[in-house]
Amino acid sequence: MRKVSFAEFGGPDVLRLVDAEEPHAGPGRIRVAVRAAGVNPVDWRIREGQFRKIRPIELPAGVGQDASGVVDEVGEGVEGVEAGDHVFGEGTSAYAEFAVLSAWTRMPEGLTFEEAAGYPSVMETALRVIREVGVRPGQTLLVSGASGGVGSAVLQIARDRGVAVIGTAGAANQDYLRSLGALATPYGEGWAERVRRLGRVDAALDLAGSGVLRELVELTGDPRKVITIADPAAPELGVRFSGTAGSMPEALAETVGLIGRGKLHIPVEKSYPLAGAAAAHIDSQAGHTRGRRVLIV
Fold first, then answer.
1. How far is CA 284 from CA 33, 38, 53, 237, in A?
2. pLDDT in tens, 131-188
3. Residues near 173 by Cβ (< 8 Å), separated by ≥ 6?
């Protein structure tokens, strides 16, 4: 089979499309013939070696953790799924023609493989940071970097829970944020003052790591009311860095529920062929994403 791999840490140019042995579903796992794989910032952070001290990996290594596809192997002890089922979920080395998943759920009717691949990690992260920041119905949540996949999910989940949302993003994405029910304001000089004019901020999330933590603390009045998933300088300001994943099965179940109620839709901004993984990483790293990026297998 073909899969994307890297033999050394570095830039997008270290990614290679190689021939590899097919993986197989062990106990408690399933294997899918991958139809699409989600592209997440964590993928290129791992490729760069940002996590190698805290999460060592053996090289060469595969890339990607989110995938959608057709079940073709069911491991020992697995029930409720069989060959031919259309599923999406989380696994390892998902940028490949076959991948083993450790968490999955059936795809809701009407959801395409391309769309489904963009949900797993995004939804787990969004649900986790909303829980950790402790925002409640009737309060207002500020989301910095709101137009990407996690931001898109956060805005919709928060609105469904009765939380008002303010989102910051590039000028081109202001109407997109408003379509998700957010009050929107662009990045750039004076952004914090523009947020103040929009109203009180009870809690804030930094999803882009663009050096805004100090302003978020000032806007909320308390570093404990700010969570970041992207700025390693967080501890210096008393802000919590959220990096430990929660329950993927629970996140997938909530995803299906929200989609079924018409309360969640994250658009795919761009799709790439498997051989275009490097280009997908370049675009993801550049930011300004509206929704998700995926690889089509």
1. 25, 11, 23, 27
2. 999 999 999 999 999 999 999 999 999 999 999 999 999 999 999 999 999 999 998 8
3. 146, 147, 184, 288, 290
Which pTM does this prediction carry?
0.93
